[in-house]
Amino acid sequence: MKLLQASSAALVGMAMCSALYAYQRTADFGFGDDAETNVKAEFYWSRLSYTSSVGSSSFGGGYGGYGGYGWGRTWSRDYPKADRQVLLALKRLTRIQGRSTEQVVDLDSDKIFDYPWVYAVQVQTWSFTDEEAKRLREYLLKGGFLMVDDFHGTADWEDFMEGMRQVFPDRPVEDLDNKDEIFHVLYDLDERIQVPGERWIQTHRTYEKDGYVPKWRAIRDDKGRIVVAICHNMHLGDAWEWADDPDYPEIFASMAFRVGLNYIVYGMTH
Amino acid sequence: MFQFFFKYPMPVFSKGKFVLLGAWPGWLLLLLIVACAAGIAVIIWSRLPAAAAAHISKWRAGAIWLLQSLLIATVLVLLWQPAITVAELAPQQNVIAVVLDDSRSMAIADSGSDGKTPREAAAQKALEDGVLAGLQKKFQTRLYRLDTRVGQAAALKDIQPSAPATHLNDSLRQLANDTSDLPIGAVVLLSDGSDNSGDLALETIRALRSRRLPVHTVGFGKERLAHDVELTDVSVATRALADSRIPAAVTFHQRGYAGSKALLLVRDGDKTVGSREITFNSEGANQVETVFFSPGGAGVKNLHFLLGPLPGEENLANNSIARLLGVTDDKRRILYVEGEPRWEYKFIRRAEDDDKIVQVASMLRTTENKIYRQGISDPKELESGFPVRPEDLFRYDGIIVGSVEAGYFMPLQQELLREFVDRRGGGLLFLGGRFSLSDGGWNGSSLVDLLPTILPAGRNTFHRNPAFAELTAAGSDSPITRLMDDPAKNIDRWKRLTYLMDYQDAGTPKPGATVLAQLHSGGRTLPLLVTQNYGRGRTAVMATSGTWRWQMSQPLGDPAHDLFWQQLLRWLVLDSPGQVVVTTPAQTLMDDGQIQLTASVRDHDYLPVTDAKVTAHVIGPDGLSALVDMTPAADSPGVFRANWTAEKPGSYLAEVTASGQTENGTLPFERIDGVAENFHTEQNRELLEKLASETGGRYWKPDELARLPNEISYSDAGISVRDIKELWNMPVVFLWLLLLISTEWLLRRKWGVV
């Protein structure tokens, strides 16, 4: 009887996972094995690998598999196609010399200090040890720049802030004004829209959870420079990843690329 | 003793001319001497075989021949009546100028038989103890005092050692002029040789020689102190930016403290603004040490550089030197042209965010067709890209060229870059990068001579490989590369910096360029930071774009990256001149208020202005306010000069205005009286001996002065007569003859041939 119950529970679980996988599908990233992973460049699209509060660190800390899906590996959502699509745009639309492949960085070593611009997703699931929080705080105060994306609604915000308060216990988070330099450093982005994830193709909803309104927020250093750019209630990573999908609206992809490039140029100038 | 043997004093022989009074010609004398010597030789030679039997060897025969020949020659010379003709001052018709130094250094008590008598008192005692009376027996005497000028004194007691300075050159020239109508036979100068105006000038020697005035110098004071430290010079910039840390090179020497340590201090009033512990090198040698200090905020700073006092020091008044330093908080602007977004750009800008003086206006090519501007003062600034008009570019004090190809600049703009350095006097810094230096085609550009290095041919000189920076000897105490004040610690500090993210081969430093830092990568050593002066300005190369790693990888709060860039950019702009620049050879006037003001006046294109009316408004102590018209210099367009005298001690400020120009130039200066005499307090015997020998006089020690009245007579200055001194009856002549005869006789006795 117990064996039957266990088997039934396993089948249900597998069915749910399969359904979720089908729902949150991953784009074919379409890059061959000849990608330039060892080329040295000025700019490296650096994706932050962190320990997820959803799974164990051993499960979530690595990045061996592509696909960006799985319990505890939330940092690699949309990885690596989103990263490489941004890098294509970066190469085509700016004079920044970026490597065409992404770079994964973590907070377990000082290697992160060689990559002054970092992108993180699903940050409602991140968690830090005291040492990691200290390293990220020092990274940001020395001149590093962190862009966070792809978390939605009130609960995610609270979870994100729980980790953020480990890094900056006292620094306020502010809503960015349209006039802020980060929206004008490359493109003038006075008119911004909520950028949905790939789910929009099925749901035509631009929001997830209770994140109805996009929040363009930031944390600044003592000189007023943005060190953490927060894209809440939007999913720019998906927009980059699905930019070549005919069903995904160009207007969202364009906005996502422009925001991404502005944030990179801002991070390299301020 | 000399006179006992030679009948006459030494000056007769040193100044006189040898003559033969006999009527027979001199050639006959020579002929006879030779003939006699030959005759004696023949006689001795002819008798030599027989003598050989008596064991007379050839060299003994030669000795006999020599003695006999000398005897005959001496007698022959005496027959021709040898004499000395010498000019001698006519008795009671000449004046001896007795000049007594009355500067404050003559009050130092280190003379006399006890070594504790003041120099002035010892000099007066020497004069009173017979020298003056001895002179007055033969001559008239006039007493003078000498300090910054020379003046007649009625009596010795009127001369007191209280004058603030000694100007030997000026005073002796004045003495030669003032006494041109007097029959001065000689000058007797009693002094310690301490001169505040420098070494003896050629003009002074010429003036004395043209009067044929021999100067007899009498030295007073210790020639060497046992224990003393003396600052001899401080070399420090005359201008600085507020909140800078700047170096000063302090020169000093010491006696009695070799190997010991002392603290070198820089003080602004009561506040110590810099210090450094130094170790004394060998005695007597000049030692130069660099000390860094922070002059603080804007204003004119009266800085004192101090060393000691040390235990047992004999002179404490020469341990300090004062210097004026103009500190400005006027904003300096740098134009930073960057060809691509990169980390070096960001972190240089961040470093300059903390500098309230230096402002960086940057234009960054974010895309092929977009320029992102930061740090601009108004929306129009750099709106059209890199300036094409001199007045737009010359408003900046410095330019940084980042990763930008030479071809990005039009020929007109390239020429403007050259003029910016050469004519405007700005600073130009080239950074390494993908499009920099050789990789940016700068090695083939018309601006190649602006660079402080000879760039390598070809491209591929930029490498994204780690490189370690290391200071050179020149960089160890440079204000640009100072991370630690102590040069040795500074070198070590640089070695401990994390590696640079990349580097570029900047080629070979040009002659005259200074390599402050070099880099090591893959077994190669290349110049990293090279500077040079060019025209009125300066240029530099920083052959990397990877110093940002210092900021990211050093511990949080480590100031190395920001401090280095702030210092480098301050160096770039500090000496960029304004349109009106006022200078003077020395801002601190010691006892003498004469100052020459020089103003360089340029228009907003920095072309020399030749037709302006230029005026210096001088403000001084006690409400002094004077307007001084400056006149154009004939040899230098745009340069105006004026001479002015600061009559009173105190601080002055000259503000120069030029008609038609909006900018003014200012110059602080200061007159200090009475300090110069605290320095060089040892007797300067070298100077006194030089003065005497160059003028035909003699240096005397005080204990030799008894002979002075007699020996001073032999001079052709004033009213002199030529006297003939016969030499035949000198005791030394008879002794010589006796010596020759007796020597021959004794030798013959010894050799058995008498």
Structure explained in plain terms:
The complex is a heterodimer of chains A (about 270) and B (about 750). Chain A has about 270 residues and is of the alpha/beta class. Chain A has a single domain (about 40-265), classed as 3-Layer(aba) Sandwich (Rossmann fold). Helix content of chain A is about 35%, strand content about 15%. In chain A, the strands form two sheets. Chain A has a seven-stranded mixed β-sheet with strand order 3-1-4-6-9-8-7. Chain A has a two-stranded antiparallel sheet with strand order 2-5. In chain A, a hairpin with a 5-residue loop joins β8 and β9. In chain A, α4 (about 130-140) packs across α5. Chain A starts with a helix and ends with a helix. Chain B is an alpha+beta fold and about 750 residues long. Chain B folds into five domains: about 1-85 and about 725-750, no CATH class; about 90-225 and about 680-715, von Willebrand factor, type A domain (Rossmann fold); about 230-330, Sandwich (Immunoglobulin-like), CATH 2.60.40.150; about 330-575, Rossmann fold (3-Layer(aba) Sandwich); about 580-675, Sandwich (Immunoglobulin-like). Helix content of chain B is about 25%, strand content about 30%. Chain B has a nine-stranded mixed β-sheet with strand order 20-19-18-21-22-30-29-28-25, with helices on both faces. In chain B, β4 (about 110) and β5 form a beta hairpin. Chain B is elongated. The model of chain B has no long low-confidence stretch (mean pLDDT about 90). The chains are: A alpha/beta (about 270), B alpha+beta (about 750). The interface of A and B includes residues 41, 95, 96, 110 and 116 of A.
Features:
heterodimer; A: 270 residues; alpha/beta; Rossmann fold; two-stranded antiparallel ribbon; 9 strands; 14% strand; globular; B: 754 residues; alpha+beta; Immunoglobulin-like; 5 domains; nine-stranded mixed beta sheet
Distance between the ends of chain B: 36 Å
Largest contact between chains: A-B, 29 and 29 residues
Rg over C-alpha atoms of chain A, rounded to the nearest angstrom: 19 Å
* Count of all domains of chain A: 1
How far is the N terminus from the C terminus of chain A?
65 Å
DSSP summary: helix tally of chain B: 17
What is the approximate shape of chain B?
A: elongated
| pLDDT averaged over residues of chain B | 92
Order of helices and strands of chain A: HEEHHEEEHEHEHEEHH
CATH topological fold name of the largest domain in chain B: Rossmann fold
The chain-level structural class of chain A is alpha/beta
Principal-axes shape call of chain A? globular
Structural class of chain B: alpha+beta
**Count of helical stretches of chain A:** 8
Q: Mind telling me which CATH architecture of the largest domain in chain B this is? A: 3-Layer(aba) Sandwich
Strand content of chain B: 25-35%
Output the strand order for the largest sheet of chain A: 3-1-4-6-9-8-7
Unreliable residue stretches of chain A: 17-23, 55-71
Count structural domains of chain B: 5
Low-confidence stretches of chain B: none
